[in-house]
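Hey, I'm writing a tutorial for new members on how sequence and structure tokens pair up, and I'd like a real worked example in the thread rather than a made-up one. If someone can provide the structure for the chain below, I'll link this post from the tutorial.
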Amino acid sequence: RNLLDRDTFSKSDPICVLYTQAIGNKEWREFGRTEVIDNTLNPDFVRKFIMDYFFEERENLRFDFYDVDSKSPNLSKHDFLGQMFCTLGEIVGSQGSRLEKSIVGIPGKKCGTVIVTAEELGCCRDSVLMQFCANKLDKKDFFGKSDPFLVFHRSNEDGSFTICHKTEVVKNTLNPVWQAFKISVRALCNGDYDRTIKVEVYDWDRDGSHDFIGEFTTSYRELSRGQSQFNVYEVINPKKKGKKKKYVNSGTVTLLSFLIETEVSFLDYIKGGTQINFTVAIDFTASNGNPLQPTSLHYMNPYQLNAYGMALRAVGEIIQDYDSDKMFPALGFGARLPPDGRVSHEFALNGNPQNPYCHGIDGVMEAYYRSLKSVQLYGPTNFAPVINHVARYAASVKDGSQYFVLLIITDGVISDMAQTKESIVNASKLPMSIIIVGVGPAEFDAMEELDGDVVRISSRGRFAERDIVQFVPFRDYIDRSGNHVLSMARLAKDVLAEIPEQFLSYMRVRGIKPSPAPPPYTPPVHVLQTQI
């Protein structure tokens, strides 16, 4: 909207060029170009860019705008109209996945704005729940009746078949009713509703030499008609059919029910306005070492971030795209506070217990450095108070409109293990996840136990409802070559990768559906423009 006008006799002929940035060397690479739209300062570009999206990665984008003056593909031959920088997370994290931002890059000029919308490709996220029964199947066993089961195959482009589902075996009957089963539409027919689905009927034998009773073919489109006369299939055994004149069939299989379920994704919730609230808790115990000494984990090095600062930035810069007000509570634990030296396990880094919020990740960093100068590192290392702090907020909004992520950065050995386990088990019922980053050389055995990936965490005989803790040791990510950018991208990727699934598991258990996204933006009606 309102692009600069660079043409003397008519309006600009704009094109948009998208660049993405490599994580390591920060080099911008051209990703693609839109079409050119003639003679307008308010173009609505049609060409879409299809990109891979990962919640746990930061994808920097740059949109450059040019006024095209000739047929040359070389951009330096055209007039530059400005550019806009953002991240992919910023676009999908905006209300309705629609981001409007100013175009910059030409000093002293207003360059207009750009509106970017993102849409998740619903590459067929449906699954179906279906149930079948059969009647009068051929008897294959000498002593009893048959023990039938079904095998489903989807057809491939080259005409071959791939097995995609087997039902259970129903023993000793020629009229089995199989249990309902759920399968993704992708697995069943690759999302192609008219592709052949072949179903084989077998009689189960203990030695694995199952006897073939017969087969039939159908398609997703046919099955989707549900229970009807169209979904009763004759089971045919081609060998028998060839041999016997009077052969009719080897029984029938009937579809009893067919229910389509659309799997909702993490982005459906984000698009519907669910906010992710990010809270940081930092370990101020004495075992970190004196912040004035270079050996300290809290060393305030004027030239580079310490481990705490790096972990905070790595995780925070990605999560902040999903939090519209960019205000983050930042807490500390394990220190003696001025003026009276009382020990606190839940203090505001900005010194304001009524309002512990800091503006943006920069605000959190600033509060962290300020409190390092004013508090005295002490102990013990108690996690339960900060977990309970966030849990109190999470308990007050269980409607799916908000989800809480607590990042605890610690140098390790935990003092209140029993209380922390109790807090985590209680928190597992709430809309929250906990990320623990361990810095320094300590043994982190206790953290691995909290992580709960191997054994689900429990307290006093109660098990956590879902796995909500993700632990990583910072030292596993230190890049030998000193390239912190890469190592922090890897750290963020590993700690954040589980969040969307933990988020969805909460919503599923509670039966919370995403809110509908706000209506898409419709541009004002312009005079029709020609497009090349």
